[in-house]
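Pair request: fold both.
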Amino acid sequence: MKKEELINYFSDLMSDSRGITGFVSENSSHYLFDALSKIEEVPLTKVQFDQLLSLQHVKTISDDFFRFYWLDIPEVHFYQVDAIEIRSDIDAITSLKQLKWGFNRLFMDTIFVYGNIQKGYEALCQLNTTGIKEVFSQYIFNTSQIKRRGNTLHFEEIEKGDRYLISEMACKTFADLERKEDLISFLLLSYRNAVKNGVKYPSFKDLLDGKYADDGGFKQMSMFDLEFTLTEMLEYSIQSEEDLLEKARHLAERWSNAHTKALKNTELYLSLVSDLDVYVATSMRTKENFLNMAKFCELVFKSNKLKEYDLRYFDPTISAADSHVDKGLIECLMVKSARMLIYQAGDRDSFGKDVEAAMALCLGKPTIFYCSSETKERFFRDVHPLSRLVNFDNGVAGGLIACKDVNEVIEIIHRLITNTMKYQITRRLPNSNYYLLEERITGSTIRVQTDNELLSSVFWNSYHT
């Protein structure tokens, strides 16, 4: 190949920039083009590679680094390395395809771990094999250990139709009623007043909104909280005082039973915090939200592809706390401890759920957004600037993975825990130094390297000061 053809062959990876990303470019030494043009007849050795790097003012590499990226296919990495034929009879690069394959791996590894290809290259290039593997070990899931770790203590089963009763709003309602006024007494008084006013069969909603109460209803709490708590009974027409008492008492018993079980489950989650795989972040405002969330968790974690791993996941529909402050602390701990987070985007998203997702991204954890709406999927994947947040520990900008259906969520989780994720390097513009690392199934950008030189230099010079 001639110089122009060689530059074009590497153009999807290389740019005219300084450093390792400009190794094959218009600025490259004529020695490089001469070596690459005859690489199949005269394989490129490590010594020659070092010379070519030096001629372009790029830091040279260790023998182990050369072998790791151009001569070996790792048995386990944090993603699935594309297979390639490599000659075992010679410790040299024997084709342009092999050379490009190694650079592609190097660029993906360094932008993933360091957020900057040149910065990552300089950190890795002189390490031995042990040192290189140690860098990546923190991103590798121990799949065999996950499969053989055994069962957890049994969680309390809560009827799906009763799970909405353990919501913070429902718990607040019942707790407030115990302190301030008995629910049954209030409803009974309202019912009697309604009958006096000629309303023979008032609904629970009519009684709750204070229409028939002398004091105008529960001024001390949100009617939304009360209506949420009694959501399935709102349109029910009361037939008699006995009917009212039976329905209200039955609801209170169901709440007490569900709440007690949810508190026990929270204790079990706390005992499991060091072995938590997935945190599920969602906002649930209606009984239907709770039912849909419970169904989603079953579809994902009991699926054929994941059930053999018996993943430990925080199910928000079966856990509660007596204090909203404790609830916040528990959720922060769970996000911090979990290996990954799933965010279920709804019609209306909440501050709490957004904060949980932001925490996960800033901790550098895989963060999966499940968006049943295509519009929301595009918004989170391509539009919102904070779909990528900076890891506070190392400054690496990490992005979320936006999935459009449950099957994609299942596949992403499976690939993560089996270290078979598939990524690709792209550029924002041809020949630019603006690199994107994308997840292949969804096209989500999970790492970014900007080509804004001022931003880049100020960011990395200032971030750790």
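--- second member of the pair ---
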Amino acid sequence: MKYKYQLILLGSEVQAKPQILSKLFQKLSDLGLPHTILKIIESDKFHSDYIGNQPAFGVYFGDSDGYHKDLSITNKLLMDGTMILPIFLGIEENSFSKEIPPILSNQNGIQFKDNETDRVANIILESFELLRITRKIFISYRRKESTSIAIQLFEALESFNYDVFLDTHSIGKGEPFQDELWHRMTDCDVIVLLNTPKFLESHWCKEEFAEAGTKKIGLVQIIWPNHDIRKIDSSSHISYPLLLKQSDFVDNIYNNKDKSKLTDTVVEEIIQQVESVRARNLASRQDSLITDFRNIAIDCGRVVTVQPEKFLTEDLPSGKRIIYIPTIGIPQSTSCQSAEIRYELEVHKNTSVRLIYDDLRIRDKWLKHLDWLNDNFKKDIQTLKKQEFKSWLQATK
């Protein structure tokens, strides 16, 4: 690849560094992306390896003795507009200010713990737009059994910068309840499903479970104590169960919809699992959309090529190139702003972009809005819904 994502490692040599890199490469594999897309630059190689016009992200590892290295490089990156994530290890109140140099004092840092590797790796991937910057979670639950737990997880996930959907908190007055619920589920990254003993006895809970399978959305299933596991539906293509014990609940109260609470340890485990599932779920949904589009294109006599970076290209006899970008959830303009797409547009001047997406369960008002954008704005970048793949491909040879 001619275009590289530059990850610049600054500061001290700490055990966290190899752990984060290992997790990062694992997530690239989960996303189906080649490891060569990423260029790791240690501070001693910065001046020879760093390229100013290619995407970059820095990680600064703090020093417990307050010895601040690589300040000139840090300053240059900040002047270039590069984001730098400070990571500190201490647990004392002043650990950040001691370990991290003053030049990074206004950056949001992370206190690193063993269970933070997923989170840090995701932040790096998000910064490179290899993983959706939006962090959308849908909580599926039965009100009669788990209201208090649903609210507890809503608040905990929001504190980790997730955009969390909970029906009682997230649907505005006057909005069509069920339409908005399906719409938000379609646009989420992961579903946290509170699988209480009578969850599947609820019609709407059963529908949500089935919808997750239809849309191929990954599930983190939180399974209640004394649940008959023979009745647990594991048909979803990506499902990660967490079997709870009575001791996982505060004061062992697990069957009171208004008073039950999970322990802090279990809440942390759930958040860690959600972080872990995101990349795999995104990759699976992208692969499904790519396969569907490619098969329809072949049936229409079109020759499309799947690129290693998970987009498709087609070179027409006229000399024009079309880039097809699989978009999960609601199409956004940021989907065509990644480095590899910008590179394609720079190299191939006569190029148009189509954001391909599955329109199932997206609210009609959003579909009309996207159609309006197609009709009124730049013709070189448009959206293309799944139900129109065949008719569009047949009409635009």
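Observation on the second member. The chain has three domains: 5-127, 136-279, 300-395.
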